[in-house]
Design a protein that fits this description.
Layout: E1 5-9, H1 14-25, E2 29-34, H2 37-51, E3 55-59, H3 67-77, E4 84-87, H4 102-130, E5 133-138, H5 149-155, H6 159-176, E6 182-187, H7 196-199, H8 203-206, H9 217-230, E7 234-235, H10 239-250, H11 253-277
Parallel strand pairs: 1-2, 1-4, 2-3, 4-5, 5-6, 6-7
Helix pairs in contact: 1-2, 1-9, 3-4
Length: about 280
């Protein structure tokens, strides 16, 4: 019997690469999607050697509207079906809202929201029909905490809202697929060691955070896989972030906002001081 296949976007590094490794360890074949084909090919070869799984390598830029359909079409042409989907591809949109062009914001929405939903819409009917499916949407703990301007400065004004939408979509799909063995999870990591922070210019600020704020991509992937198998609609990895989310749920909103704002100010001041010394 053919192994199940999981489609993973943004698989060339960070959380996406860790997801590929986690699913491969569990015996899944992989459809690896990202812009950097050379990295995908190297990962596919490594997963074949380590775990004996096969991979499809599909170079794609999900900021382009037609890519989700092309990706799914290529998988079908290879004679495979999508049994699992990990929506992970993404990037921040540095700069406050008034500092950015709408073209950049539109591209951000295409990559971080529309492409995710389009891929789900393409593969979910088949999962429902076959009676099996696993969907992981990589959200963010920022969707569950008060807004921090230090965070939106690097990730984008609409980043927390976009990530919040993924939580609600995951919860809705879980409810709609009840009893059909199709599971949906939004995993909500906090700061995670990856190239994401280099791309959006936040590496200096991130380096000032306490070590317990930083997650490993491998731990995020393990938490996500466990959550989707258990059909948990929302999972927050890491003890510190679990504590923070729980605390903000019981504190009055103004108090939580004050705490987050002050933490953000301290981190920004420290980063600015270090930049001035450099």
């Amino acid at each position: 019997m053919a192994r199940k296949l999981v489609l993973i976007t943004g698989a060339s590094s960070g959380i996406g690469e860790a997801m590929a490794r986690e699913f491969a360890r569990k015996g899944w074949d992989l459809a690896l999607v990202a812009r950097r084909e050379d990295r995908l090919a190297a990962l596919a070869e490594e997963m074949k050697a380590q775990n004996g799984v096969d991979s499809l390598v599909i170079a794609a830029d999900l900021a382009k509207p037609g890519e989700p359909e092309r990706i799914v079409s290529e998988i079908k042409k290879a004679g495979r079906q999508v049994d699992g989907l990990v929506n992970n591809a993404g990037a921040g949109q540095p700069g406050y809202f008034t500092e950015t062009d709408w073209d950049d914001q539109e591209r951000f929405l295409q990559l971080m929201v529309t492409a995710y939903l389009h891929l789900i819409h393409l593969v979910l009917p088949g999962m429902e029909e076959r009676g099996f499916g696993r969907i992981i949407n990589v959200s963010s703990v920022s969707a569950l905490l008060p807004i921090a301007t230090g965070h939106t400065r690097f990730s984008g004004t609409i980043y927390p809202g976009a990530k919040g939408l993924l939580i609600k979509v995951s919860q809705s799909i879980k409810a709609e697929m009840h009893g059909k063995n199709v599971h949906a999870t939004a995993v909500c990591p906090g700061y995670t060691w990856s190239e994401f922070h280099d791309v959006n210019g936040a590496r200096q600020s991130i380096s000032n955070l306490p070590s317990y704020w930083m997650l490993k991509a491998e731990d995020v992937a393990t938490a996500a896989y466990d959550a989707v198998e258990r059909n948990v609609a929302c999972r927050v990895p890491g003890a510190w972030y679990k504590f923070m989310v729980g605390l903000m749920r019981v504190l009055p909103d103004p108090v939580g906002e004050w705490i987050i704002a002050n933490q953000s100010k301290r981190a920004m001041k420290k980063a600015q001081a270090q930049q001035a010394e450099a």
